[in-house]
Design a protein that fits this description.
The chain is α/β, with parallel strands linked by helices. It has 8 helices and 15 strands. The strands form 2 sheets. Strands 2, 3, 4, 5, 11, 12, 13, 14 and 15 form a 9-stranded mixed sheet that branches.
Length: about 325
């Protein structure tokens, strides 16, 4: 369809000026067909066709024109994306899901690795009062623990790009500082990203303009269903710790609501106080997205079968990590 609307030189100029999403909106085209044509023209003319970047911008190679602040757009035609969420990393605890995440990052060699928010817990700077006399780690203990865990992830797959849509617990760090010490804005160290330079922060990651990865949107037991039905996109969220895939099919095809679960032990010390020993409809694990010719195939989950024994399941096989 794109070839009938634009000549090659016009297409290239438009892509450089307004990017794939801009062309899709302006000419009512499908985003996947736009990227296919771009790659074909790159091969034909032996060049890279990229959207223009304003000189003052600090955009990463994964981002197109920043039409939406906090959104990163990436292109994955063939390969995997590894997505884990809600690690709530705690000093001196390494969960089975975390060990499995490191293992599959090394095994699958995904092009992109996404931690989908709430990697830290920050109970000491929460707006909620402490419960009884519960012991809570200090802010620096949490940061140093998360630095160690995230370093373990990046070390086994150094060619991947690492992205981090922030969660509500992560946001506690800067929210507290902005509240009590607003004069320190933009000083190095007061922003969470200063402590994790390998990870690109954002509010959402858009993959091929058809899959949205963000920490949360709808709430409640039917959140993943509501996310995909209402948005018209496949949406991968965390926050609710439920670890599940809910498909939805209509005239546009099949898309998915996906919950990443939690990479913490659901009965770990992070949750002891406020959960009051209640039963939890939570599952520990993470998600693997696989793309074939730009299309997402049915999402896979890695599920922790036994926390104490270090057993996880993936695609019908059990792994000990």
């Amino acid at each position: 369809m794109a070839a009938k609307v634009l000549r090659d030189d016009d297409f290239i100029e438009e892509f450089q000026n307004i990017g794939a999403r801009g062309i899709a909106r302006k000419y009512k085209m499908d985003a996947r067909s736009i990227h296919r044509r771009r790659r074909a023209l790159e091969g034909q003319y032996k060049t890279h066709i990229l959207p223009s970047v304003k000189p003052q911008s600090r955009q990463s190679p994964t981002r197109e024109l920043e039409e939406h602040p906090g959104r990163l757009s990436i292109d994955v035609q063939d390969g995997t994306v590894l997505i884990g969420s809600d690690s709530h990393y705690w000093p001196n605890i390494i969960s089975t899901a975390h060990r499995a995440f490191v293992y599959f990052n090394e095994k699958l060699k995904p092009k992109f690795v996404i931690k989908n928010g709430d990697e830290l817990d920050f109970p000491r700077i929460s707006r909620h009062a402490p419960i009884q006399w519960e012991q809570q780690p200090t802010v620096i203990q949490e940061i140093e623990t998360a630095q160690d865990r995230l370093h373990e992830i990046t070390e086994v797959n150094k060619n991947a790009k690492y992205l981090w849509p922030l969660g509500n617990h992560d946001a506690r760090y800067e929210t507290k500082l902005a509240t009590v010490a607003p004069e320190y804005a933009r000083v190095h160290g007061v922003h969470l990203k200063d402590h994790f330079p390998r990870w690109k922060p954002c509010w959402s990651v858009w993959i091929n303009d058809t899959v949205v990865v963000k920490h949360r949107w709808a709430n409640g037991i039917h959140a993943v269903y509501n996310n995909t039905v209402k948005s018209g996109k496949t949406i991968v969220t965390g926050h609710l710790h439920s670890l599940k895939v809910t498909p939805w099919s209509d005239y546009t095809g099949t898309r998915y609501g996906v919950d990443c679960g939690t990479m913490a032990d659901p009965y770990g010390p992070q949750f002891e106080g406020y959960m009051e020993d209640n039963a939890r409809n939570w599952r520990s694990g993470f998600v693997v997205l696989t793309f074939y010719k730009g299309k997402l195939i049915w999402p896979d989950v890695v599920h922790v079968e036994d926390e104490k024994k270090g057993l996880v399941s993936f695609q019908g096989k059990v792994y000990e990590v």
